[in-house]
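Hi Y.,

Following your request, here is the sequence exactly as I used it, all 156 residues.
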Amino acid sequence: MRGLDAAQPIHNLRTIQDVRDNSLALERLNLSVLSVFAVVALSLSVVGLYGVLAYSVARRQREIGVRTALGARPSDVLALVLGQGIRLTALGIVLGMVASFWFTRWLSSLLFEITPLDPATLSTVSALLLAVALIACWIPARRAARIDPIRALREQ
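Below is the corresponding structure, written out as tokens. Let me know if you'd prefer a different format.
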């Protein structure tokens, strides 16, 4: 600039990195807020699913004790409780997919180089949710499989 016209003042001098960072600031904020909400939602869903299953196991303790007394193996009880949790999770994933189809117009403005209905992304997120739900279901299911049938029948 000084070689062209030495009298011209140079102001607002920034690197291309700064210009790029400033132009992407709003998108980064949106992504950060969305990420925080996603983590909170995932945490709430895990805690909620765990709570529902733990309550269900506590309420069905007598039934599980009777099943065990009649010959149900711990693996059968484990499969019963895990199946209940997987059904709840599958329902949640299906409802989430339907909701994501409704929000595609809003989501498309926040995405970069990916479509809102990208099958790879939707299947990866669904698999992640299913894996996290299995972990949340495992603790109450393991507790149900360890129920002593004699103690469960005596308590009620």
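The first helix runs from residue 16 to 23.

Thanks again,
Q.
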